[in-house]
Amino acid sequence: MSERVAIYAGSFDPPTKGHPWMIAKGASMFDKLIVSIGTNPDKHCMFSVEERLNMLYFSTSEIHNVAIKSFPYQYLVDFAKSVDAQFILRGIRSLEDYGKEKDMRNINGDLNSGITTVFLMPPRELAEVSSSLVKGLIGPQGWENVVAGYVSIPVLEKLKSFITPTLNRKEIYEK
Questions:
Q1: DSSP assigned state of 39
Q2: Which amino acids are annotated catalytic?
Q3: pLDDT one-digit tens code per residue, 99-144
Q4: What is the rounded radius of gyration, in angstroms, for the C-alpha atoms of the chain?
Q5: In the chain, is it the N or the C terminus that has fewer CB atoms within a 10 Å radius of its CB?
């Protein structure tokens, strides 16, 4: 029997508490889970790919059948094929996510019908958590305490080191 390999891809900018939940669930379902940072030309990221890889590594270091990688400027299904993955793991938090993920699943199926997309829904307490939400909470006085509820300690420390008292929200996204 061949190894069941899945890809869980995203921008992870920054990783939230929902991402390790997805990774742990995916790791329990597959022999190997490759967590991958892709390049999305529509997104302007706060952190470099290397910084995001490190945050993911430290957020998931206790899960042993997980590899952390990046795949710049490549279709996800092509990357999946290059690492012998048969599955793509995706999370659905809302109806909006469902519509986007269904469309991407169909396009990925057009590109490579041999790869199956598997959808998971996070528990209620993680359903609204997204990287965009976290970035939107940064800035006001006391933001660290609020954001701590949505990211792991290593990610919070990285966010705190990135944000200085003199750096305003506009500058965060122009870096």
A1: P
A2: 19, 43, 93, 131
A3: 999 999 999 999 999 999 999 999 988 888 899 899 999 988 899 9
A4: 16
A5: N
| Tens digit of each residue's pLDDT (9 = 90 or more) over 15-73 | 999 999 999 999 999 999 999 998 877 778 889 999 999 999 988 888 999 999 999 88
| DSSP-derived secondary structure letter, 35 | E
DSSP class per residue in 105-172: HHHHHHH-TT-EEEEE---GGGTT--HHHHHHH-SSTTHHHHHTTTS-HHHHHHHHHH--TT--HHHH
What fold, for 5-127? Rossmann fold (3.40.50)
Q: What is the dihedral of CA 125, 19, 142, 128, to 10 degrees?
A: -40
Find all residues with CB under 8 Å of 75, minimum gap 6, and list them.
111
| Domain ranges for the chain | 5-127
**Amino acid code (one letter) for 112:** N
Name the phi and psi angles at 7, rounded to 5: -110, 130
- Residue 144 φ/ψ region, left for φ over 0, alpha for ψ in the -120 to 50 degree band, beta for the rest: alpha
Q: What is the pTM of this model?
A: 0.87
Name the token pair of 19.
């991402």
